[in-house]
């Protein structure tokens, strides 16, 4: 909850790019956003994070592991996705999704999102030992799809009329995945990207007059 005020500031700075992702709007909205995320975490369904710039300790967005799936313990049929065997707070997932990511406008294009995804992927494959990480995006969200593809994830296809989008329209969803045997190659790709000097592009309206 200590991130609520900073998340509200990050989400309220410029909302023009949040057409496809739920982003808190105001302090009360941020409190509710965090409360829901923590409820899911307590049930073993997700693991949420605030994105913090290490350069200035500024909160610039949020991301999370979600759709945690557990394949250990007694075999239950039909399977119940997202239900861990034992304590949900200590259970280790066998597959997960990375999503619900949003970043403040002035932090886009800085490499922060790439580094955050790298840290999460390393934790998933090298600490948890997951078999698969999934990522998905509204098929209309070209920016998110390009970012996912640049990580080295494989497109599994587009599920048509998959769900209702944030704008109320019935949306198609593009699904991507990285398997455990693919992680070493993906890790090399992402590490190479992070080691390459970036030319940070600052939106013109954020430049001093």
Per-chain topology:
Blueprint: H1 4-12, H2 27-42, E1 46-53, E2 58-69, E3 95-103, H3 112-128, E4 132-138, H4 142-150, E5 154-164, E6 170-179, H5 183-195
Parallel strand pairs: 3-4
Antiparallel strand pairs: 1-2, 2-3, 4-6, 5-6
Helix proportion: 25-40%
| Mean pLDDT over the residues | 88
Morphology call: globular
Secondary structure tally: strands: 6
What series of H and E elements makes up the topology? HHEEEHEHEEH
Query: How is the biggest beta sheet arranged?
Result: 6 strands, mixed
Low-confidence blocks of residues: 199-209
| Cα-atom radius of gyration | 18 Å
β-strand percent reads 25-35%
The SS-based structural class is: alpha+beta
């Amino acid at each position: 909850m200590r991130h609520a005020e900073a998340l509200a500031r990050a989400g309220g700075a410029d909302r023009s790019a949040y057409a496809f992702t739920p982003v808190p709007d105001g302090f009360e909205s941020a409190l509710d956003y965090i409360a829901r995320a923590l409820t899911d975490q307590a049930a073993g369904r997700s693991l949420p994070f605030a994105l913090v710039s290490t350069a200035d300790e500024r909160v610039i967005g949020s991301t999370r592991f979600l759709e945690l799936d557990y394949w250990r313990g007694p075999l239950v049929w039909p399977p119940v996705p997202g239900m861990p065997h034992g304590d949900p707070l200590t259970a280790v997932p066998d597959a997960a999704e990375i999503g619900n990511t949003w970043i403040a406008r002035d932090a886009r294009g800085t490499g922060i999102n790439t580094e955050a995804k790298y840290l999460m992927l390393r934790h998933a494959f090298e600490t948890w030992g997951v078999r698969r990480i999934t990522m998905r995006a509204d098929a209309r969200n070209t920016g998110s799809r390009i970012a996912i593809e640049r990580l080295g994830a494989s497109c599994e296809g587009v599920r048509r009329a998959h769900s209702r989008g944030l704008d109320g329209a019935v949306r198609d969803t593009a699904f991507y995945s990285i398997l455990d045997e693919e992680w070493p190659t993906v890790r090399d790709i992402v590490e190479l990207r992070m080691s390459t000097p970036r030319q940070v592009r600052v939106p013109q309206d954020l430049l001093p007059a």
